[in-house]
Amino acid sequence: MNDSTLARLTGASERVRVASAQDKVYKDECMYSFATPESPGGLYTNLETLQSFSAAFVALDHQQTRCALYLLTTSRRLPPTAAPSPTVLGIGVDKGFDPEAALGELETSKELVLMDEDAKQVRVPLPCEGLPERLGLALAALEAHVGAAVQEGVAAWQEERRPSKYAESLEQLPRTRTIPPDPSKWRCDETGVTENLWLNLSTGHIGSGRAHFDGSGGNGAAMRHFEATGRKHPLVVKLGTISPAGADVYSYAADEDDMVLDPALAEHLAHWGIDMVRMEASEKSMAELQIEKNLAYENAAIAEVGKTLEARQGPGYVGLTNLGNSCYVSSVLQVLFSLPEVQERYLPSA
Fold first, then answer.
1. Domain 183-294: what homologous superfamily?
2. Do 287 and 88 form a contact (C-beta atoms < 8 A)?
């Protein structure tokens, strides 16, 4: 990088924006089109507005904002490799379902792009030493930011657990038993089963959880105990999930009836002789079990697995290209064109 380019970078760096975690950073898709870093020409991110534009629209953005400095991100897809199994019930989150895994990793290159008055570009490959301090901070913040698309996706898909309204004032009956820390000594008080056991935090009763959708997992003894005691003690904890990091807590209360958080869980467990700090999880959490069931679900009936299929093409068998977020429209159009009346109206002249 020559002195002239460095001087221009230094001047332009005074206007760049250092993104915070709360900022919306649109670094994954063009503001005017469906272009991404994988598109021809890559994706230009305006380092002042934190919005991105394809090669076809970056000159227009420069004309409107007079931004002199962009980050150009160019990516290409590598052949896919085996992805680790998800352990968190969420899509696009750390250790969750990764929709991109089947597509392979991205090989990405980045360049700083200086724009002059005529939108002519001077590119500086990254990483590069000697960059102005503020510019370095802005680039690091941009790299670390998850991006607006991920922020919105996590909010839409990730399982959210709220603190139970019953946790703060939870009634715990006098201790008549001490729960041993050894999982091999845990038994359902009603049926004697040893898996999927839930401790009622109020009564100390250990009961089997309810069955999963496929019939496995439990016999519902914990729920029956809740009903038999007048539905007054709703909070239960899955014994095998207790660790220093927390545990699965469920509320049977009619106005919750869901996985919840117990902010006082360590205190409530200590009442029954369980030292949460010394415990290690010995069973899968409910999130892990749900993920496992989803991954193992039999889709053969709808996927026509095992059948010999005949490839068809030509009139009447032409699909619609997904433009990025047009899949719902495509589905509606496909349904409409399956109607004889629509076919009669439009297909003869097509």
1. Zinc/RING finger domain, C3HC4 (zinc finger) (3.30.40.10)
2. yes
